[in-house]
Each structure stands twice: as structure tokens, then as C-alpha cells.
Amino acid sequence: MRITFLGTGTSQGVPVIACGCEVCQSLDFRDKRLRVSIHLEIADKSFVIDTGPDFRQQMLRERINNLDAVIFTHEHKDHTAGLDDVRAYNFSQKRDMPIYARPSVLEQIQQEFAYAFTAIKYPGTPQITLNEIYDNPFDIEGITFTPIEVLHFKLPVYGFRIADFTYITDVNYISEEAIEKIKGSKIVVIGALRQEKHLSHYTLAEAVEVLEKINPEQAYLTHISHQMGLHREVEETLPSYIKLAYDGLRIFC
Ligand SMILES: [Zn+2]
Ligand SMILES: [Zn+2]
Ligand SMILES: [Zn+2]
To answer: DSSP 3-state assignment of 13?
Structure first.
């Protein structure tokens, strides 16, 4: 499986509009973070988890010419806003784009992109088919995805385990039951917003603590705010098996 980090930033991205802080002014390419998403390529199949506001730019940057499905973690705009741009794949692949999410997330998507779900559609609107997912593993094109429910303040969010790879973005609580589902993963990606406490996201220290429990071979942190600090400086403080992800990073699992 080939995994590409399409975006590793929190909802505002990094740099933040009109911010003069040293991270937003940094010239290090690893301090430029689009909104969070990953691309998975498994046995010639191509998937993205979430379509944030930077979806179009990410697909162009990584030259992703085929896309078999989109899987959603939750309904927040930084994870869904780019969905309209699956139109490009509707045209090039001449088929609807299947999307997978829990029923409450599909409902929200149908409200936000109402024009794509009306009985009579304006020509050129996105062609999307809705697939409900629950707490059980599901298959897309022969690939098994295991949802892992975590909490993002009070909102249940899905992380996903695909073989030995687990990806969890927006989270500040993972139950023991969920930890058991993650254990045994070789590579774990988990959200860590910044160093100071936050209502709905793990801090750097909290993410490291939960990773110590899970004990993967390799771990990457994502959904990073400009308040985290400079990539180079923060990474030096981490245990050797934990790295900060950055946009364009490609790993194999
Ligand atoms: Zn988010
Ligand atoms: Zn800043
Ligand atoms: Zn969120």
C-alpha cells in the first residue's frame, strides 16, 4: 500500500491568512500545510480519506488521475468542502463517485451539497453515490476498511484501519476498545494539533502518550496547527519512531 499525505494542516491550514508568526513565515516546505487528507493506493485501487477545501490542488499536485472512492472521517468543513471537485473524475471516468461515511455524515453532506442530490439536476453537478458505514469492517473494490470510532470533543469520528495501517485525524479521546482495534498496526497516523491543551484535539504530548500505548513500529502526526511550532524544531523533541507528517510525504505499508 502506498500512502501519500495530501494535507497535514488543521482547519485553517498553515500558513494562516494574515498571520505573521514564525511558522507562517517559515521558508521550510514542511511548514506549509494544506487541509488534512491522505491518498491510498492499494492493488491498483485509489482512495482518498476526506475531501477538504484543498482537494483540487492536492489531486493536481500528486497527479492522481484515477479515484475509486472517497471515505469520510466526519462532517467538518475542513474534511468535506472540496467534494464538488469529484466532478472531474465523473467526467474522466464516466461514472458516479462512491462516497462512504456514517449516516449522520452523509446527511450533512446532502445538506451542504443539496444541488447534487435533487431529483432534477443542473447539468455538470457532481454525480455521487452514498454508502453508509457503521462500526463494522466494510469492503470497497476488494479492500477492507475497519472503522475505529474515536471522539472529537463530543462528536464521534471514524478513524480507519486498512491492513497494518491506521489513520485517525480529529481526536481527543480513544477508548480502550478502539485502542485494541488499532494495536498490531505497523504504521499509525494520529492527529496532534499543538502543544497547548485544546477542547477537541490531542496535544502533542497527549498524542505521544496514546502512541506509547499502541506501540506501532512507526507513527506520524497530522492535523497540525501553526501553533505547534516549526516542523524541524518540534520533530527533534519526539521519540525516534514518531515523526511529524508533512504535505507530499509518501510512505509504504
Ligand atoms: Zn479537522
Ligand atoms: Zn501563524
Ligand atoms: Zn473536525
So the answer is: coil
CA 13–ligand 1 middle distance (angstroms) = 10
Q: How far is the CA of 235 from the centre of ligand 2 (A)?
A: 18
Q: How far is the CA of 229 from the centre of ligand 3 (A)?
A: 21
Alpha-carbon distance of 212 to 34, in angstroms, equals 27
Query: Parallel, antiparallel, or unpaired: how do β-strands 2-7 and 37-42 relate?
Result: antiparallel
Residue with cell 485517525: 168
CB atoms within 10 A of CB 129: 11
Its pTM stands at: 0.98
Gap from CA of 203 to ligand 2 centroid (Å)? 17
Q: pLDDT per residue over 69-102, tens digit each?
A: 999 999 999 999 999 999 999 999 999 999 999 9
N-terminal to C-terminal alpha carbon distance within the chain: 5
DSSP string, 197-218: --SSS--HHHHHHHHHHH--SE
